[in-house]
C-alpha cells in the first residue's frame, strides 16, 4: 500500500500543471457520477426497505380486513383483503412472481443486501477518488508556488 | 510568392482547418451518443441478469406474470426463462457492438487530434509569414 502511494505521487510530480488540471477535471466528473449513483442506490434501498416492512402488515390476522383501494390518486373504493398468504413481486423487466410472504421477505432482504454491498463499493471508490483529487490539488499548489518562485528569481 | 497569393493560400489553409474542426466536433458528439447508448444497454443487461437469477431460483410450477401494456399475463416459467435468456444474449451483443464502435471512434478522434495539431501549426506559420510580409 505504501509503495503504491509513493509511485502515485511520483507520477503526479512528473505531470505538468496543464495535465494536472485536466486530471483534476476528470476526477471531478468521476466524483459527481459516483455521487449520483450513490444517491440512486440509496433511493432504491429505501424503496426495498419500505416494501419489506409493508409485508409485516400482511398476515393471517389481516385477512378479511376492509381496505381502501386507490383507483386514482384521489379516489378510493372499499375492498376486503381476501388472500393474505400470497403477494406478487415485481422483479424487473415486466416480470411479476407470485410468492408467499416469507418468500417475498427473503427476496427483498436479498435485494437490500445486494444494494448495500453496492453502496459500500461505491463509497470506497468515492473516498479513493477524493483522496487522489486532494493529492492532485496539493501537487498543483506546489507546482504553482515553484513557478512563482522561479519567476521572482528571474526578475 | 506575391502577397495576394500568400493570403489566398492562407485562406485555403484556414478552410481546411475549419473543416477538420467540424469533423472533429461531429465525431465527439457521436462518441457521446454511443457512450450513452452503451451505458443504457449495460443497465438493461444488469436488470435482466437479476431477473434471470430470480427466475433460476424458482421451482417448476411457480406462478409468474408478465406485464403486457397495463395487463398482467400469466406465463410459464420455462417460457419466461427463454424470453429473458434471448433478451440477454441480444442486449449483450448490442453492448459489445457499441463498445467496438466507441473504440473505433476514439481511434479516429485521436488521429484527428494529431492532424488538427499539424494543420494548426501549418496555419500559424503561414499566418506569420503573411503578417511579416505585410509590414
Keywords:
heterodimer; A: 155 residues; alpha+beta; Helix Hairpins; two-stranded antiparallel sheet; rod-shaped; B: 135 residues; mainly alpha; 2 strands
Could you please describe the fold and organization of this structure?
The complex is a heterodimer of chains A (155) and B (135). By secondary structure, chain A is α+β, with helices and mostly antiparallel strands. Chain A has one domain (23-134): Helix Hairpins (Orthogonal Bundle). Chain A has helices at residues 2-14, 17-54, 101-154; strands at 66-72, 75-80, 86-92, 95-100. Residues 1-5 of chain A have low confidence and may be disordered. The model of chain B has no long low-confidence stretch (mean pLDDT 91). Helix content of chain B is 84%, strand content 7%. Chain B has helices at 3-57, 77-134, and strands at residues 64-68, 71-75. Chain B has 2 helices and 2 strands. The longest helix of chain B is centred in the last third of the chain and has 58 residues, at 77-134. Chain B has a two-stranded antiparallel sheet. Classes of the chains: A alpha+beta (155), B mainly alpha (135). Strand 4 of chain A pairs antiparallel with strand 1 of chain B, so a sheet runs across the interface. Chain A: It holds the Pfam family Prefoldin. Chain A: It comes from Geodia barretti (Barrett's horny sponge). Chain A: Belongs to the prefoldin subunit alpha family.
